[in-house]
UniProtKB/TrEMBL annotation:
Organism: Streptomyces tauricus
GO molecular function: ATP binding
Keyword Transcription regulation: no
Keywords tagged on the record: ATP-binding, Kinase, Nucleotide-binding, Serine/threonine-protein kinase, Transferase
Protein name from the UniProt record: ATP-binding protein
InterPro entries attached to this UniProt entry: Anti-sigma-factor_SerPK (IPR050267), HATPase_C_sf (IPR036890), HATPase_dom (IPR003594)
Gene3D superfamilies linked: Histidine kinase-like ATPase, C-terminal domain (3.30.565.10)
Length: 172
């Protein structure tokens, strides 16, 4: 599935709405932590494309079949983890560059958030531009969020702050 994005900041909201509707259609409920994480990642990647390139872009969303995805509260031993992949393709050859934002800065944290929330991310040249992508594994319980799907669960309070570098954010 893909959505063409105009070089206009208003497109970020449209991209979020589009992604929410596609997630709901795939069996990922709006109140699942996965859905909230994916919408934030869409926001960050589309914002970067719109703000830093000033050119049209394409948002792509790759989701597993709803039937093959683990359901909330259950995950069989040895089950293959379902992965959701987001890609934004733009017409700029300039590589994404993480920035260090100071305390009161209103921007400069996007790629740090992507790095902290996605299980994997990266970029590659694509034609006359680039593709920035990230992947999130669909886990079945909140205890695996801090460690990833393959690690042993660590029991932590859901609202405890997660620290990334000198940034902290809270999962609610």
């Amino acid at each position: 599935m893909q959505l063409e994005i105009r070089p206009d900041p208003a497109e970020v909201g449209r991209a979020r709405r589009w992604a929410r509707s596609r997630l709901a259609g795939s069996g990922i409920e709006a109140d699942e932590p996965l859905a909230e994480t994916l919408i934030l990642l869409v926001s960050e990647l589309v914002t970067n494309a719109v703000v830093h390139t000033g050119r049209p872009a394409v948002l792509r969303l790759f989701m597993p079949d709803a039937a093959s995805a683990p359901t909330a509260g259950e995950r069989a031993v040895g089950e293959v983890v379902a992965t959701v992949r987001l890609e934004v393709v733009d017409a700029s050859t300039r590589a994404p560059r993480p920035r260090c934002a100071d305390g009161d800065d209103t921007n400069g944290r996007g790629l740090a958030l992507v790095d902290g929330l996605a299980d994997r991310w990266g970029w590659s040249a694509e034609g006359a531009g680039k593709r920035i992508w990230c992947e999130v594994d669909r886990c079945s319980s909140a205890t695996t969020l801090a460690t990833g799907c393959d690690a042993a669960p660590v029991v932590t309070p859901v609202a405890s702050p997660v620290v990334y570098g000198d940034l902290a954010y809270e999962a609610v």
